[in-house]
Structures are given as C-alpha cells and as structure tokens.
Amino acid sequence: MNTSNPSPPAPKADLQSIRNMLATDGDRTIGNFAGLSVRSHFQPIFSVAHSRTVGFEGLMRASDPDGNPVAPLDAFRMSRDSSHVATLDRLSSAVHLNNFLHLKADGWLFVNMRTEVFLESVHDGNFLGELLAAAGFPPHRVVIEILEQGMLNELCLGEAVQFFRKQGFLIALDDFGAGHSNFDRVWNLQPDIVKLDRSMTAQAGTNLRIRRMMPVMVSLLHEAGSLVLMEGIETGGEALMAMDADADFVQGYYFGVPAVSLPAGEPSRALFDQLWIDFREVTLPEVSFHRREVSPYINAIGYAASLIESGIPLAHAASGFLDLAGAERCYLLDSEGRQIGENMVDPRYVATADQRYSPVANAQGANWSRRFYFRRALEHPGKVQVTRPYLSIVGANQCITVSIGSLVNGEMRVLCGDVSWRDRGPVKR
After folding, report:
1. Who is most buried in 23, 33, 135, 234, counting CB within 10 A?
2. Domain that holds residue 402
C-alpha cells in the first residue's frame, strides 16, 4: 500500500518570478508558463452619457506550443493545482498591465481575477498592489472583475472586497443575471460596477416582459450604489435598449471587438451621435404612443372625479371610464389610502377575470397608501397621475393606474382607475 503523502502544491509565483516569465514579441509583452503563451487583447468600454471610451477590459489569449489557441477556461483547467491557477492569473494581469502601459491608454483597465485567487489574496500577499506600484500605475485606474456566480462564502468575499477597496481598486461584479445571481450579494458587497450578463441582453431583445424589467433592474442597482455596465451588445437595437434601460456603460462587438492594439482617436463619436439620433426617433414615437393610448383614460378619470365632487355616486360617475376598452376597475380612496367601498368593475372584465385570484378580488378597506399613484395624487391634487406598467395584486396582470386627488365634501379623496396593459408597449426594436 502506498503510504506516501501527496506533494504539497508549489508556492505561488511572486512578482520577480512573474517578471521572469515575461518576454517581448515585437512591441508587445507576452507571458510563458506551463507550456502556454499568454497575450493580451483589449475591448473598449464606453460611457453612454459621455459617448466615448472610458476604459478597456484586458482579455487573456493563450496558445499552446504549436500555436493553437487555448480558451481561457481551458487554460485554467489545465493547471495542476491552486498555485498554478494563481500563477496563471497573476501572469495574465502582468501581461495586461505591461501592454496597457505600452499602448498609453487612458481610462480604466478592467482585469478579470479568478474567484479563488480573489478570495485568497487577503491572506496570500498583495501581488496586484506590488505589480502596480512597481509600474507606477495607480490602483484607482484598475477595475477588478470577479464572477458573480459560484461564490458561496459571503464573509470571505466581503473581506476580499474590502481588502482591495482599501487600496483604491474598483470592484466589478461580473456576469450578473446568470447562474446563481442574487441581489443580496449586491446589497452586501456594494460593488462599484455591476456587469449585466450577455444572456440578459439577448433575452430582453426577444422578450417584451424582460425588456420592461431592464430599467427597473438598472434602477435597483443604482439605488444599491452601483454603476451598471451592459455587456455583450452586438446590435444597434441592443444598444438602444441599453440606453433606454439607463445603463451607465456598454461593451460589446457593436462598439468594438477585442484587439491587440487600441483604436486610433475616438471612433465611437460618430457611432454615438447616430445612436442618440436613433434613440430620439424611437423614444418620441413611444412617448406619443403612450400619450395616445393613455389619453382617453386620463380624460375619463378626470371627468369621473368632477362628477364625484358634485355629489354623483361612484357607480354612476365611473361608468364612462369603465366603458373604455381595457378599463378594469375604478375605486375611491380616503386621505389615508384606504379604499372606500368595493371596486367598480367592468362587466366584461368580470367575465374574463382569472378566478384563481378571487381571494384578493374584493379590495374594500384595503390600504393602498404605499402606492405611488396614491402619494402622487395627494401631492398634486387636481392633476391626473399615470403609473408605469406594474403587476396588479388584484388580478395578477400587467396594468397601469390613473389617479387624481380632489376634495369631496371638504375631505381629500383619490379616485383611481386600473387599465389592462397586457402586451401593450413601445414599438419593438
């Protein structure tokens, strides 16, 4: 029986060891390790508001001794142990930095760091900090990208984030929206940048419901304190979708492919000039569409409110609103947001209502004070308010609500009307 102990992993390469692995190929730095040649490609990252490049992501390009390309994931899978993984990761960062410096690029350098390397850095030396210090490159110009999925030890992850943040690095959570993504990690870690996974961009391009959620998701990430980068943009339609979602940064083949050298000048200026023209041309019809669609309900709820002010009962005052196609219900709230009486419902809606939600159909006495349509109506009495499409708890369907606050017998009341918004929306891009 073999009782010998397995050999301990080789120590991780320090800065001098990494330097010894570097070589030059013309005016470019390459790295050589474990039979692999490691090179850099850079893909530009753009600010939508600034309409220009604000950084570049360093992408590892590896090849075997015969010159055959080796995918980055395969290159790391070939590593014998954790020390080899860390060494390859460090070598990749060194190659990117040297080439970035040679290209005299402006803005941020985005570097990917393996999850295990990122976590172990707290107790395993400060290689990246030493590398930058030796090159005279400030940490605040480096964005460390860490994969969002598969990291389970939140405490260790938080310690590693703080370790690098204290040195001045920016932290980006990569591939958000794929695999094990969750907002808890964003709340807890508060990354400087969240990169939305390409799969979300692709799905939003074909699924109207997902596309409607993109601005909401971006808004939530902004409220959490993170800037948002939408990656994998490959078409003009996806670029317009990113602009509509209020993403801060964009990256993808539509704007620039990964390359050994950087583009001369700022070729994105003309591209963004055209995008802003297209964006206005797309959004103006959408605004007009929305106004055209919503206008009848605005007029009807306003007229109903004037009838109620003059003493007409809700059942009669709401009839004109409920006669409109798509109008589902009308209801009256007191100054505290509590519903007075039952919903006034269009008989056509009753016939098609989903009976599975009958337990929440009767909303008499319900408190809607949390809703923005109630608060806004109180803040702007006499002016009709219109919500974005949202999921109604009463029917579990997409709807909008029009509301208006007015005085009835000296007391503030808010009249509300729900309108079905199934499959309505802006022009598909």
Report:
1. 33
2. 294-420
